[in-house]
Amino acid sequence: MADSSKKYIWSERKKLFFGAPWTFTTYAFDEDSLDIKTGLIIQRYEEIRLYRIRDFTVTRSVIQRIFGLGTIHICSADSTTPEYDIVNIRNAIEVKDKLAKQVDIAKSRVGMSTSEFVGTQVYTHS
What we know:
This protein is α+β, with helices and mostly antiparallel strands. The protein has helices at 62-66, 92-109, and strands at residues 10-13, 26-29, 33-38, 44-49, 53-59, 69-76, 83-90, 114-118, 121-125. It starts with 9 loop residues before the first strand and ends with a strand. The chain has a four-stranded antiparallel beta sheet with strand order 1-2-3-4, with helices on one face. The chain has one domain: PH-domain like.
């Protein structure tokens, strides 16, 4: 990953549709950020601070389900990466749950509360 000194809670290499890790994309998150590294010749490192993540969606096509994979779609308040897909990872629902828990912890640490908009009312969870 981008920073070998970090202690990641979860990390995985993007899989091909049949589950083999023959790609040059790795995903990982620690208590502060989601880190994405892509590329072989030209490498790109992307970091999304966890407290900026707003929402998650998990999708699993028929092929992904056959091979135990899924995709997590992330919506964030990050200016360079407002949306991102963590594609073809194992146990996508469990990973999303772990990531969501860390997002809530990160938001609490920086003094943000999680809010949900329902109609015109705002419900705040502390």
